[in-house]
Specification:
alpha+beta; about 25% helix
Length: about 180
């Protein structure tokens, strides 16, 4: 297993639409190893999610897990999940603003509106169909990673860039 290099804001890979993964591609040992490497990379950098394009692979794959994460200490746990070719559907128009950070936009946070609840359809890493509802922070993480797979970063969703802050200033002035 290997820790992968994370693309930072400005790298063109972050602004491209990712490509769907085929069933045979998903079954390959190479792609399974890549998914393991994504998980290791996410954990190494204390991320709660990671999209394939963030590690220079333009594929519709995202991994997420929230469990005792020092970057998000008060958030509810989310089990390790692999989403392949995800589709999301908002379950209402209701949104909620909350703080987000990103491994591709290091050392910063911003206030981002997201749908409070979504339906998620995807494959897991074995090609099994997933269909579930995510709410709150779980929904936020999935929407954040889904945006990556569609060439967007959280800055694109911010309504007010005056809330964009370096982590030290966020902790000092914004964190409650």
């Amino acid at each position: 297993m290997a820790i992968l290099k994370v693309a930072r804001l400005g790298h063109p890979v972050l602004r491209k639409m990712t490509e769907a993964v085929t069933g045979s591609e998903l079954r390959s040992q190479a792609l399974q190893q890549f998914i393991d490497d994504m998980i290791l990379t996410m954990k190494e950098y204390d991320g709660v999610g990671l999209a394939a394009d963030q590690v220079h692979e333009s594929k519709q794959i995202a991994v997420l897990e929230v469990a005792g994460n020092p970057r998000y200490p008060n958030k509810s746990d989310v089990p390790l999940t692999v989403l392949v070719n995800p589709k999301i559907t908002p379950l209402s128009e209701e949104t909620e603003d909350d703080w987000e950070g990103c491994l591709s936009v290091p050392d910063m946070r911003g206030l981002v509106p997201r749908h409070k609840s979504i339906r998620v359809e995807a494959w897991d890493r074995k090609g099994k169909a997933l269909d579930f509802v995510a709410e709150g922070f779980h929904a936020r993480v999935i929407q954040h990673e889904f945006d990556h797979l569609n060439g967007k970063v959280y800055l694109d969703r911010m309504r007010d860039l005056s809330t964009l802050a370096f982590l030290t200033e966020y902790a000092r002035y914004w964190m409650k």
